[in-house]
Amino acid sequence: MEIKKFEPSMIEAVVALWNESVAPNSIYSPFTKASFQSKFLDNPFYDPDGSLVVTEKGKIIGFGNATYNHQGKEPSQTPGYITCIAVDKDHWRRGIGSLILRELERFLKDKGKTYVRNLFFNPINLEWLVPGTKNHEHPGAPAVPFNTPYYFLLMANGYNVNGQQDAYHLDLSRFQLHDDVKKKMEENEKNGFTITFYDSSLHHGFDELFDGLQNEGWRNVVKNNLAKDHPDPILIAQKDGEILGWTGPVFTQPSGRGYLGGIGVHPKAQGHGLGKSLFCMLCQKSKENNATFMTLFTGSDNKAREIYLYAGMKIVQSFVALRKELK
User: Fold this and answer.
1) Omega into 249 within 30° of 0, i.e. cis?
2) What pTM did the predictor assign?
3) What residues contact residue 322 under an 8 Å CB cut-off, 6+ apart?
4) Average pLDDT per block of 10 residues along the chain, 327 residues long
5) Number of structural domains, the chain?
6) 70: exposed, middle or buried (C-beta count within 10 Å: 0-12, 13-18, 19+)?
7) 273-291 b/e (C-beta count within 10 Å ≥ 16 → b)
8) CATH of the domain at 291
9) Beta-ladder partners of 137
10) Confidence at residue 199, expressed as pLDDT on a 0 to 100 scale
11) Which residues span the domain enclosing 54?
């Protein structure tokens, strides 16, 4: 058995390894040669020294990748990430996964990292399929799937739980805007609150909204969308032209997934059910835009879960952020 640096000529063999031994036994999506190239080698944060293979008698029986993003800071101030570890199914339980993990940790330590934290900030984030659905794919895993072989591998090698993310799913073919949602919207309209699409000639206050929510990520989502030649529609809650909440943009991804860039209601307008109305309207408009499903993830203690459950979403997978100090 030999550990080698991954080379581009090995893509076909690694894709076959993944599709035969990982994808059928996990929630992770299979790869094609093109999608593997795009996900790893074409990623601006890909470091060739962070990918390795394990061979036996000339055959690749293991693959692993680790990466990092210094974010303009000292390397020790940001985590390293273990993207994935794949082992041929005929060679499980031989310590190969642990061997790959140790080598990847050594790579990250050489890059100045003092700890590993496996969660969605990894710049190489792997797609996964919602269990029990027909290829309903979420664009990135929020952390390590709970109680899976990969989870137990990391836990057995000194990793500790550092937070939980729950993934939600909604089959839009079954979604209907229920009467209680319509009734709540009608009540709010009497008080001047309406749910509508953003119109720059009629509405104002995005910056004030995101200042109030203290969320620069959402500000950037809206800003980048509005900078497009043809922006996607954004749902807002408004009163007298002032934007008091938002969600969207309404966009259907090639997989059929209805996109969600974020959802928030200004603190001064909370308590009126605007968040629930906004999200239910997003589900409805996404369905009208030919989306077949929606997925999202959020922290297990996030109060927004009440909004998602209210709309009919189901928790389909729990993920845990795992952390390890590198010594």
Assistant:
1) yes
2) 0.91
3) 116, 117, 118, 143, 144, 151, 154, 155, 159, 160, 161, 162
4) 96 98 97 98 98 97 98 96 98 97 98 96 96 93 95 97 95 94 95 97 97 96 97 98 97 96 96 96 97 96 92 96 96
5) 2
6) middle
7) bbbbbbbbbbbbbbbeeeb
8) 3.40.630.30
9) 129
10) 97
11) 2-164+321-325
Pair 124, 236 in one domain: no
Quote the tokens at residue 306.
Answer: 């009440």
Give pLDDT tens digits for 111-153. 999 999 999 999 999 999 999 998 999 999 999 999 999 999 9
Residue 101 lies in a domain: yes
In this structure, is residue 169 part of a structural domain? no
Please choose, from the candidates 99, 116, 16, 89, the residue with its C-alpha nearest in 3D space to the C-alpha of residue 64.
99
In this structure, the number of other CB atoms found within 10 A of the CB of residue 240 comes to 8
Q: How far apart are CA 225 and CA 115, in angstroms?
A: 35
